[in-house]
Specification:
It is built from 18 helices and 27 strands. Strand 9 and strand 10 form a beta hairpin. By secondary structure, it is an alpha+beta fold. The protein is 26% helix and 21% strand. The strands form eight sheets. Strands 2-7-8-10-9 form a five-stranded antiparallel sheet. It folds into three domains: 166 residues, D-Maltodextrin-Binding Protein, domain 2, CATH 3.40.190; 132 residues, D-Maltodextrin-Binding Protein, domain 2 (3-Layer(aba) Sandwich); 251 residues, Roll (Dipeptide-binding Protein, domain 3). Helix 8 packs antiparallel against helix 11 and helix 16 packs antiparallel against helix 17.
């Protein structure tokens, strides 16, 4: 069921069973979906992909990188600890087995008013903070207003269409919208609710190491700043038997150990100090797991296919810098990037080239615009490249030999058109200033990608430096847009919406701490972003998103890199797990559990290594 059947904020909002409400009527439901009717009925007992009888106990140790100096993860200041989301509950709970679908969690019932300009959440009477006090509508209202006023800029963009929020009783929260917004009800369902009574007398705008009060399945047990973070399962967790939690959060303790970089973290895993890791480095996946425990089967490795849209990973230029404001310069930087060589020589052929901001999904633009997408783009003729209507967007392709002479030739031609010339083997502009910039990275992993790129740019006479800083310093520089180029990942979902403002809008290009890393400020993009947000049905959303994708690609704001369609995981053989993974998630640590028998066998085998 799509919005043609039910105009509930542009989303398909399902009732429990049976039947649907007619347009113009209020809707009461247990779940929301942006794509189709939620598959689980009101009386479902647990997620289909979990083991509802999973045993509780044991500990798992995971990796965190860099450092932390705050237990407040909602503000711009400070570096928050890993895993803080474990201590908070949200109004709705995401089901990673369904695309863009959420079910009531803190909220027992969701109501969409007849005018579709709001959403009402009725909280469960049983919902409690860890100190035993009830979670109230006042907590929700306070959380929302505090995050929008004092939280990271992301929240202001995400909640931009909320006109007001009120508590109509102790357990009833009413959000009113300024405009119809097909995904805003679900966005608000993701709100992590904070305890108003705990925060009273504390300054929310400052980093803190006070142990925060939560309501979630875990609480902070102890920590050592920059070293470790330990969470313990709450035995009296109010929601442990809810269908949205049954069979999940099975470890008694989840511990994060901090490491300087991924190289050290990998060695810690091999030494048995870390239990589980996802491997994002193709070279390491191919070569680094040939050690005694892995050869004996004590360490397991798997590749798990997923259906998650992979978004855009790219070298991103900072358009706030005059150096990158000419699109011919940006295309020249694209021409130099030799993905085929990198994939063959560094990545063992394991990646696909990313050619869309919405890769691995039906939202990605393809070929030339047709049908409704073309109709949308016709409005912008003369404001977008004419070739966009007659040619597919293409990234350069090389033979992988490393001899990218054609790409270099095309790049040099574009740079000359843009006013750059080669003088004494250096590329300079009309004023004699050299073409030089810095690539900012937050760890050594991406150096293997950046350093060959530096060499290719040097063949054009472009001087490029790679600067790797620790994650905390990197975050500060990113929040203040203090970089020339960096590597960024613009994640996407099956149903893009409000977050596109944070990625691509003019307003966010000027707001420190936003996710508009490139500094994109284009009136056409702004209009298309708003069209995506206000799409009235799935077909229109797909057409509008493809139009946005196409314009972003033709503007050449980024140098696209690559993506993978699998999770690569490695773990010590001490776990039990459900029979299958959810379609759109990994399921770890949520639904795995500690297996004492496996752990005993593992410890015995390790003594003989």
């Amino acid at each position: 069921m799509h919005r043609r059947d039910l105009l509930a904020l542009g989303a398909a909002l399902a009732l429990a069973r049976p039947g649907l409400a007619a347009e113009g009527q209020a809707i009461r439901t247990h779940g929301l979906s942006l794509l189709d009717e939620p598959s689980l009925p009101r009386d479902f007992t647990h997620w289909p992909w979990v083991n509802p009888d999973a045993p509780k106990g044991g500990e798992t140790v995971l990796t965190a990188l860099g450092s932390f100096d705050s237990l407040n993860g909602f503000i711009l200041r400070g570096t928050p600890a890993q895993g803080l989301g474990l201590i908070y509950d949200t109004l709705l709970a995401d089901n990673p087995d369904e695309a863009s679908t959420e079910y009531g969690h803190l909220a027992e019932t969701i109501e969409i008013p007849a005018d579709r300009l709001g959403v009402i959440f009725e909280l469960r009477e049983s919902a409690r903070w860890h100190d035993g006090k009830p979670i109230t509508a006042d907590d929700v209202v306070w959380t929302f207003n505090t995050l929008r006023q004092h939280g990271r800029p992301f929240y202001r963009a995400y909640y931009g269409d909320v006109q007001e929020v009120t508590a109509d009783g102790p357990r009833k929260v009413v959000f009113r919208f300024a405009n119809e917004n097909r995904e805003l009800a679900q966005i608000l369902g993701q709100l992590p609710v904070l305890p108003k009574h705990w925060w009273e007398g504390r300054d929310f705008t400052r980093p803190t190491l006070d142990v925060p009060l939560g309501s979630g399945p875990y609480r902070v047990e102890r920590f050592e700043p920059n070293r470790s973070m330990i969470y313990r399962r709450v035995d009296t967790y109010w929601a442990r038997d809810l269908p949205t939690r049954k069979g999940t959060n099975n470890f008694d303790v989840i511990r994060y150990e901090y490491f300087r970089d991924t190289t050290v973290a990998l060695e810690a895993f091999k030494a048995g100090q870390i239990d589980f890791r996802t491997e994002n480095v193709a070279r390491d996946w191919a070569t680094a797991y040939d050690f005694p425990a892995a050869r004996r089967g004590l360490v397991k490795r798997e590749e798990i296919r997923h259906e998650i849209p992979t978004g855009m990973q790219a070298f991103v230029v900072n358009l706030r810098r005059p150096l990158f404001q000419d699109s011919r310069v940006r295309r020249a930087l694209i021409e130099v990037f030799d993905f085929e060589w990198l994939n063959a020589n560094l990545f063992y052929g394991s990646y696909a080239r990313t050619g869309s901001y919405f890769s691995n999904s039906e939202l990605a633009s393809q070929g030339v615009p047709e049908g409704r997408e073309k109709e949308i783009l016709e409005k912008y003729r003369g404001r977008v490249p004419d070739a966009m209507f007659t040619e597919p967007y293409r990234l350069p392709v090389t033979d992988g030999s490393g001899n990218n002479r054609e790409g270099l030739r095309r790049a040099l031609g574009l740079l000359r058109e843009a006013g750059w010339t080669v003088r004494d083997r250096r590329l300079v502009n009309a004023q004699g200033r050299p073409f030089e910039f810095e690539i900012l990275l937050n760890g050594p992993t991406m150096e293997r990608l950046a350093l060959p790129y530096v060499q290719w740019l040097d063949r054009l006479g472009i001087s490029t430096r790679v600067r790797t800083v620790d994650p905390a310093q990197y975050q500060v520089r990113m929040d203040n847009f203090d970089y020339d180029m960096t590597v960024d990942v613009m994640g996407q979902s099956q149903s893009p919406g409000n977050e596109q403002r944070d990625y691509f809008s003019c307003e966010k290009a000027r707001e420190n701490g936003s996710q508009n890393i490139a500094g994109i400020c284009d009136p056409v993009v702004d209009e298309l972003v708003e069209m995506v947000i206000s799409a009235p049905n799935r077909a229109e959303l797909v057409a509008r998103t493809r139009a946005l994708d196409r314009v972003l690609l033709w503007r050449e704001f980024v140098i696209p890199q690559y993506h993978s369609r699998t999770f690569r995981i490695a773990y010590w053989d001490k776990f039990g797990r459900p029979e299958r993974n959810p379609r759109f998630g990994l399921g770890f640590p949520t639904a795995w559990w500690f297996d004492p028998a496996r752990d005993r066998a593992l410890q015995e085998a390790r003594r003989s290594l």
